[in-house]
């Protein structure tokens, strides 16, 4: 990818984004004919993996401008994690460089943003690193830095907007013993209580970095292994999926679940919940197309009856 390709059209809406907005508007008009109004428009960004280089910074600025310049722009941006290229096993000064790039780019953002934590958003060092013991005592170590920079009230939290309730999950709890990502027991109890407390007539949107239910993890794994050798892809999908799915089914009003992580795109409808896995803003980690998926962001319209419409833009 060359810099001129990223910058081309940065100040105007791209053809693909115009088509996406048009598709959303057509769906909205059909809903309105049935007496159902749109509650919110969401811009979904995931796996930005921002680098302190000109090309990635220009690309993210282009996306932010496309989202903001439309007359019917999103009410809210949801960022489902991996905001920086990598905070894992990086020295503090390197992480600071990446956050400086983030601050520079976000000066171009005109829309409120809510975020959750991705696996690359956790500052960590290897135990063999000479700075490991020092870093352990740093107030920014672990998930503290991402919480501070993105203004998260906690690693998981909830908020309301218009007719909808939103729940951000922290899916970055990797169990080597169980073979994958999950939410911790305390968070599971919290989620269960939240779903009990939220009025049943109020639709809920859940967002997490790692997909809860998705086709993409299996297809991603199938790129490197024959189908008959595949096991449950716990590195790319929640291993506690059955427990979470049961909570959603019992609640009855979890209408949407957003995620990222895999850099692939899919939509799965299961037991009344629409699971949308968004494409990566960074595509193949800023190396063009990953398998069948170019760099992307998405738009999501939420309606007062709990329905939704999701559109991906390959920018």
Automatic annotation (TrEMBL):
One of its GO terms (molecular function) is hydrolase activity. Residues 40-264 form the Calcineurin-like phosphoesterase domain. Keywords: Signal. Residues 1-28 form the signal peptide. Pfam families: Metallophos. The keyword Signal applies. The keyword Signal applies. This is 3',5'-cyclic AMP phosphodiesterase CpdA.
């Amino acid at each position: 990818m060359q810099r001129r390709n990223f910058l081309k059209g940065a100040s105007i809406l791209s053809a693909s984004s115009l088509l996406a907005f048009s598709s959303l508007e057509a769906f909205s008009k059909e809903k309105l004919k049935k007496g159902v109004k749109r509650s919110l428009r969401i811009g979904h960004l995931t796996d930005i993996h921002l680098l302190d280089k000109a090309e990635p910074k220009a690309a993210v600025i282009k996306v932010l401008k496309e989202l903001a310049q439309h007359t019917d722009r999103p009410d809210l941006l949801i960022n489902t994690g991996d905001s920086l290229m990598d905070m894992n096993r990086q020295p503090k000064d390197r992480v600071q460089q990446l956050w400086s790039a983030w601050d520079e780019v976000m000066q171009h953002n005109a829309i409120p943003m809510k975020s959750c934590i991705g696996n690359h958003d956790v500052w960590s060092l290897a135990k063999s690193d000479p700075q490991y013991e020092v870093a352990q005592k740093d107030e920014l170590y672990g998930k503290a830095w991402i919480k501070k920079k993105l203004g998260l009230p906690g690693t998981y939290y909830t908020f309301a907007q218009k007719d909808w309730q939103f729940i951000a999950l922290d899916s970055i709890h990797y169990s080597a013993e169980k073979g994958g990502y999950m939410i911790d027991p305390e968070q599971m109890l919290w989620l269960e209580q939240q779903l009990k407390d939220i009025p049943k007539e109020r639709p809920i949107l859940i967002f997490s970095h790692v997909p809860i239910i998705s086709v993409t993890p299996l297809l991603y794994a199938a790129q490197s292994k024959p189908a008959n050798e595949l096991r449950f892809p716990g590195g790319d999908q929640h291993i506690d999926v059955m427990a979470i799915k049961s909570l959603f089914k019992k609640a009855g009003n979890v209408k949407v679940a957003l995620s990222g992580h895999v850099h692939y795109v899919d939509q799965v409808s299961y037991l009344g919940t629409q699971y949308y896995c968004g494409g990566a803003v960074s595509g193949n980690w800023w190396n063009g197309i990953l398998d069948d998926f170019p760099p992307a962001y998405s738009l999501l319209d939420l309606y007062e009856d709990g329905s939704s419409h999701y559109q991906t833009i390959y920018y």
